[in-house]
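A sample follows:
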Amino acid sequence: MRNRRLFAGLAIAAATVALTPACSGGGRKATSAAADAEITIKPADGRRTVRPDRSVEVTVSGGRLDEVDVRQDGTTTPGAFGADRRSWRTMWTLRPGVWYQVKALARNSEGRVTAVMSRFRTAPAAHRIGIADVTPQAGEKVGVGMPIIVTFDGPVGDRAEVTRALEVKADKGDEGAWHWTSDRQVVYRTHRYWQPHQNVVFTAHLAGVRAAKGVYGTADVTRTFAIGASNITVADARTHRMRVDHDGLVRTFRISMGKGTTREYTTTSGIHLTREKKPVVQMESPNCKPDQPDCDYYKENVHLAVRISMGGEYVHQSVGEYDALGHRNASHGCVRTSPAGARYFFGIAQRGDIVKITGTSRRFVDEPNDGDWKYWNYSWSDWLKDGDL
């Protein structure tokens, strides 16, 4: 109500200014006054079936726009002026099935104000689409390799429209891009690793986005998370050493990787991301029975385990065989290290840290496990291309 009264006051003031006589003293003939500014608002006043994926546009002739205010149920809709302030346009799509109110003020060359107000209603969505999950979680502190993974609750037909509605703001301005991994999931990866110790805000301006014919988003989604310390680890199966760079502090630990007697017992080379960590994880050979001949069966509890792939690879404290650390590969595929190394690695680990494995014949990027985060194993040019990686 207060906003209506304020705007009404501005309109009355504008009318008063427009009625001021355009003459001067001294008996000279008055010059003609400049025409009032004319404001056009689209969609037109009173419309009730406006497509929500259309923008609100305000233009003026014979003047410049001073103010534009677009509101839906008291909430301001963001927009931007053109460079010459003769136009204004909403930045994002509109919510389906609701009323919007538009107010605009403009001035002509002599400073007289024109005020216009209109209302319209967007068409309701016949079918809706929303976001089922966003990774990372709100408020989570993650590593410098962490992707943003957005999963929708239905198939997306118009990927370009949905991608345009996704916004990422990082305190330090890191460059990144989206890549669709399926018709329900899109992933954001930075060009280079995130810069550490900053906040990131992800917003899906999904309300009003046309995801497919007759399918619209109805609500925006925002998540804020933090990039923590820079943890970048390089583990080499040939030198049997693991170099851990924690915010510039480098430490090296002796390790032992997969023994390589079978494909399953060969550690995968490539850039991995840490996924989770647990004090104790029970591990058992996946395709081997206790009484099966010629089978290297095992079932054991490992301590200080940090998962780096969905295929069962971890960085963890060695289960015995400490003599192998730094000398030979003796594990069933994991990266084993000393108690001191495991405690240090476990202590600093956060989801999304970089772990690069080198020196083996088995490539991480070729693994078929669902849910593996292989995103850093592709070049930036490949990431920017449409289609499967």
